[in-house]
Amino acid sequence: MVIAIDQPNYIPWKGYFDLIHDVDLFIFYTDVQYTSRDWRNRNKIITPNGEKWLTVPVGQNVHRKIYEVKMTDKAWQRNHFETMRYAYGKAPFFREYSDFLEEVYLGMTWEYLTDLDQYLIKHIAKEFLGIKTEFADSRSYKTSGTKSERLLGLIESVGRVQAYESGPKAKNYLDERSFRDRGIEVRWKSYDAYPEYPQMSETFNHQMSVFDLLFNVGKNAPYYIWGWREEKGVCSYFL
């Protein structure tokens, strides 16, 4: 089994889903420290006036685990919906996803940030991108320690793991030798060479929410995430 573990992000960019697609099991890392001004509660879209942050208000308390973070203002839901409709209303495939946006932002009430993030990620992965990966929450497993040792303990508690795939930023703290000593191969995800797609901006930017990709290319989105790599025979990770 190949697994990946990452903190749940708000409407994350395509690379997040590329990592999910690579593995058999993706675990949302929710019982760790919440970090403010990060991707957990915000992401970027493109509007007629340029790039814009969409931020879910969660307060300023820094002494919380991710699973403890609550929304502080319900008005954000309609605001995010209206902002995306204004930004992408004329995009080629916006209407294909508008019912889902209305359901999430106007028809449902959210209390915990992780519930919102996980719902969006799972639905987008399964229903819009056709990803077959299984999902789990780190709270379902026993964890202890800090940084690399905690992560390794979580992986071992899953069992039957042959390889762990991670984003390259984890190189700052992950102890690869400890993983290899326990028979777990470490794979570093490559986010290089994504092809550009028709984007409603003069200057192309890969670091947009996956919604930007979906609204502009629709069902062709998987090609721009991993399909191009499969077509060219390019590996999605390095050791």
Strand order of the largest sheet: 5-2-1-6-7-8
- How many strand elements? 8
Main sheet overview: 6 strands, mixed
> Which percent range describes the beta-strand content?
15-25%
Radius of gyration: 18 Å
* Derived structural class: alpha/beta
Q: How far do the termini sit from each other? A: 17 Å
Pick out the low-confidence regions: none
Mean pLDDT: 96
General shape: globular
The string of secondary-structure elements, in order, is EHEEEHHHEHEHEHHE
Helix content: 25-40%
* Total DSSP helices: 8
Describe the protein.
By secondary structure, this protein is of the alpha/beta class. 37% of the residues lie in helices and 15% in strands. The longest helix is centred in the middle third of the chain and has 16 residues, at 113-128. It is globular. The two termini are 17 Å apart.
Brief summary:
The protein is built from eight helices and eight strands, in the order E-H-E-E-E-H-H-H-E-H-E-H-E-H-H-E.
